[in-house]
Design a protein that fits this description.
Length: about 160
Amino acid sequence: MSEQRSHVYKWFIELDDGEIEQWLRAQALAGWHLQRFLAPCRFSFVRGEPADEVYRFDSFPAWKRSSDYEQLCQDAGWELVFCWWGSYCWRKPAADGKPNDIYTDTPSKIARQRRLLTYFGLTGLLLMYNLVGSSDREMDTLRMVLTGGSWPCSCPCPT
């Protein structure tokens, strides 16, 4: 019998304070285990035995990541599910009384949040630059909403 698979489209941002991680845990409890993540919002699952698994996301730009990063996480019991553009998804069985976070100290948690904010801030700036600088007519409505501009029209009305 062939493996049962499922593909789910779900948009998320790593700054969502664990919402996507809780959703993935619920999927694992129902017997759907994350196999991989495909561009930007497609999750691929494989059917298996229900299990209580904890998922955690982390981001590291390639130029800041040390060569020991993946080994450190694996030594702590985390399995790498996927890595996509510097975003990592880790999984391990839930353990009562043991930490279920990649980062257990406050300075490391703060550093992670700063990395995420920097990443999303730079991405937002690039998006705004592309929208404001675009000459495509299709982008006019989105540009107007994001920049607070007026609706472009060719009528002789005052703007």
